[in-house]
Every structure is written in C-alpha cells, then in structure tokens.
Amino acid sequence: MNYRASAGILLTILGTSCFTVGAEGQIWPPFEITAFGGYRGSGSLALDDPSYSRLDFADGAVYGIAVGMSVEPADSPGNGAIEFMWTHQDSTLKALPNPGAADISMNMNVDQFHFNGLYLPPRFERVLPYVIAGLGATRYAPEGDTSSLTLFSWALGAGAKVPLTKHLGLRLEAKWDPALANASGGVFCNSATGQCFAAASGKTINQFDFTAGLSLRI
C-alpha cells in the first residue's frame, strides 16, 4: 500500500501546525459543512474458502462531505463537535485464487456513512487540533450480478482545522475506519453463478483515509 507516505506527509503538517497556540475559545460560527478528498489505503478480507484465500480491496482516491455543529460540554475543558460524514471510493475487488482456481475481479463502489464525535483541546486558536471517533456502516456494491454488502464500521483518527476567514477554513485528517465482516454467511454472492465467498471468523476490512477539505462555517 502507498498510504504510509501519505500518512507521513499529513502528520508532518499536523505536527508543525499544532505549535501555533492562541486564546481559548471558539472562533468560528457553530455550523460547518466540509467537502473533502484524499487517498484511502484499503486492506483485504481473509476467506474460509477452498478455492480463494482472500479478497483484496484496491487503494485509491476518496471524496465526500461532512455536516456538523459545534458543542461545548459544561464539564469539559475543551470544545467538541458532532457530525454526519459520507465518504465514497471507486475501488476494485480481486479474489486471490489458490492453485487451480480462476482469477476473479470486479469494480466496486464503497460508500461509508458515519456519525462522528470530535474533541478539540482548549487554548488553540489559529490552528485547532482534534481527535475523532465515529460509528456507522460501510456499503460495498460490486458492479454486475454480485450482491452488495453492508457492514458495521467505526473510525478513530486525528486532524486539524485551520481557519482562513471567519467562515472558511481548511480541514486535514487521518483516520482508521475498518468494517467488521459477518462470518455467519456468504459475502458477495453472484446471482448468476450462485458462487458466494465466505469470510473467515472475526475478520475486519481495514481502511486508512488521509484527506484534506474546505469547510464553510455558518
């Protein structure tokens, strides 16, 4: 995967930016809409299948939108935010064959829907670092006769918001957002051939997103 290089660049930006400290308090209006894009490093899913060892999800570009609002808990020393985030990736799914099996690949649309909570430490003004955690679902929709699959997913990460004006700002973010595969039945079943891939027990599909976006505060 190529996400390690992207992670290094983004973390360098965040580390440098977070040395800028200003007055405590919220400096932007409370409601925020962010359009973002970036790169996703995707993992693979181990299979319980005699012909195929695992499903491999291709790395690639991601884009999406987040809509949220700021909150200020009375007992917290910092600020927070809640949001809904949609992320899309055009990917490719490959079934890695054991000896004697045929190669299988298909185009894949991956849509992630998460409710996130953000915590912003106090005493930062010109650059606002934060941590993020989220819960939701990820939908994998192959093109063709293969059925789609919706899995429980979550997210953990960190980022920084950089105000440009009172109403505009940059948002930089890195997060891990895996999906949990259901081992109780088949995944990605082909309606034309009847073939289904069965996930190995307790396996996750790992995803690592590195994104930058433009935020509008209203």
Structure class: mainly beta
CATH class: Mainly Beta
Strands in their spatial order, largest beta sheet: 1-4-5-6-7-8-9-14
Can you count the beta strands? Answer: 14
Summarize the biggest pleated sheet.
8 strands, antiparallel, barrel
Morphology call: elongated
Amino-to-carboxy terminus distance: 38 Å
Mean pLDDT reading = 83
Counting DSSP H or I runs of 4 or more residues, the number of helices is 1
CATH architecture: Beta Barrel
Q: Count structural domains.
A: 1
Helices and strands, in order, run as HEEEEEEEEEEEEEE
Describe this entry's structure for a reader.
Helix content is 7%, strand content 58%. The chain is mainly beta. The protein has a single domain, classed as Beta Barrel (Porin). The strands form three sheets. The chain has an eight-stranded antiparallel β-barrel with strand order 1-4-5-6-7-8-9-14. A two-stranded antiparallel ribbon has the order 10-13. About 8% of the residues have low confidence.
